[in-house]
Amino acid sequence: MNMKKIITRKAWSDSDTAEMIALYNMFLAHQQAGEKYTKAAPIRALAEKKGRSKGSIEAKMMNLSAVYRDLGMEWVTGYKPLSNYAKSLKDAVTGE
User: What does the pLDDT look like over 13-36, one tens digit per residue?
Assistant: First the structure.
């Protein structure tokens, strides 16, 4: 019998998205200032806090890179923009 693991997706709340944007902006500020910083520990901490996988958090960061790129803004090196993201994420970044 082939038992496949069922994966349930948990929707991102507005507060989850706001925390992700804040963390992304912190990384971007360090990058723009030319400061050395580590992404691993804050990503792990946020994943634990939100009950999500590290990969889920990193994928959302790549979605944010795509939003920033599409808005003509600098994006965080190391989070290559993904081709698809929800319009609501762009709205959260722009405040619409």
Answer: 999 999 999 999 999 999 999 999
Rounded to the nearest 10°, the torsion over CA 96, 50, 82, 65 is 60
| Contact of 68 with 85, CB cutoff 8 Å | no
- Residue 18 vs residues 14, 21, 75, 93, 95: alpha-carbon distances, Å: 6, 5, 17, 8, 10
Which tokens hold the place of 90?
């762009």
Token pair for 38: 């580590």
Q: Contacts for 52-56 with beta carbons within 8 Å, 24 or more apart?
A: 52/10
- Token pair, residue 6, equals 């069922």
> What are the residue ranges of helices labelled H in the chain?
14-32, 40-50, 54-70, 87-94
Q: What is the pTM of this model?
A: 0.86
Q: How far is the C-alpha of 52 from the C-alpha of 69, rounded, in Å?
A: 25
